[in-house]
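From the shared-data thread, chain only:
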Amino acid sequence: MTAPDDTLLLTRALALRDANGQFNGGDVSFIAVCGILVFFMIPGVAFLYSGLSRRKSALLLVWAVAASNAVVIFQWWLWGYSLAFSPTATNGYIGDMRSFALRKVLGDPSPGSPLIPELLYSFYQMEFACVTVAILMGALAERGRVFPAMVFTFIWTTLVYCPIACWVWNVNGWAFKWGVLDYAGGGPVEIGSGISGLAYSWALGRRSERELRNFRPHNVSLVGLGTFVLWFGWLGFNGGSAFGANLRAIMAIWNSMIAAAMSGIVWCLLDYRIERKWSMVGFCSGTIAGLVAATPASGYIPQWAAFVMGIIVGAVSNYSTKLKFILRIDDALDLCAEHAIGGILGLLFNAIFADSEIIALDGVNTSASGGWLNRNWKQLYIQIAYIVACSAYSFVMTAFIARTINMIPTLHLRATPEEEMLGMDDTEIGEFASDYIEVRRDFTDWTPPYHQKGEIEPESPAIAGDRHGVPDAQLPGNGAAHSNGEAKAGANGALPPILEKPEVNGTTLP
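Structure, as tokens:
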């Protein structure tokens, strides 16, 4: 006789074996690896943003990307996944709390595909949400405070990202039922981050003219590193959205490579016609715009269409960088031009070039209809309506959330002008991405002041950073003079002021 406890354990073991056995191990492994690749995009975004900013505010963006990632992980586990993908909500707008804290999320087939379990699907979709918010953090560039931004992150993911994801990816979402074609997130990820970044930048206001004048990225090598880390992770982003190790995933990877390459080349050529220089930042910007356009389209269109899309996106996104000047919104890192415009173009390409044969390569969506290639003429207005809905909702809701948070005491979104001038790394983080000793933070401070004879010698400006816990401004001898009247070198490598050479009997000494 088998003991009752042994029988219960045996029953549970058989149930767990059945839960694992209903899925192909290759599909599960492939999507798990793709989810990890998507996570690798987080440091890619951080490096990219850090390199594009001024040195005195470079670490703040790394911190904001890293911290927002942690906030979204908690939000997604708590209720984000449930609000986006719970199968019991039928309102078409947002989910319910059926899967609160990932309750009942285990071995059932996922809402996205029967090829993988829901537990894996929830992890994979969490990384999408993390990357979206990481992109959005670029709106903080050189003037945004990080603590209010983290509060904003939690609320924005709940009220903006989760509803849009529910619209198009939940089986009960209105866009899903209407037949919108959005493969890997043109609406939730790209329009959501790009248009919301524009709205957050509007809520923050423009940087001072002093900060905008003569602006250049402080480390283009980091820009290149971040771009190629993103490109690497993006192959998991788009390839994994086939939710299985199948031919549709490979087609999505191919289309992502082609679109990124062509867009990077076109953007770089357009910049060359003006500067007569081969801009690395321009190539990286174009590459990212091509990957953005491939996000909603790579699993729907043939390779020749991806080639055409890359060329068009590279040109249109390049010219779209002028929108921020027309709108008078300081979109410092061009979130709208690269992410929103790229996502919109990718969604429009689905309307024209989506092919049912490409969609059927996953072995699941074998009865799906494509776009104009399959004489599905109505797909164009369906895609346009979806684009308008995502754009309007993202901007209005983001602006409302940001303005509301800004009115709360201690949660003002923007730093003071004095803090911006000093640098956000110093005022918000207390550490520095590049803590130079011999070079001061501001361009205007590189050359010490030249003083005429008889003028009172001011103290030299303090250098960025602390030395062994003691601020430079408090160190003795920072710009002071020795008792014998000679200029003393500043502490920790500060450059001494330039003084007039002494004269003896009317002759200037060497």
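Residues 21-406 form a domain with the Ammonium transporter fold fold (CATH 1.10.3430.10).
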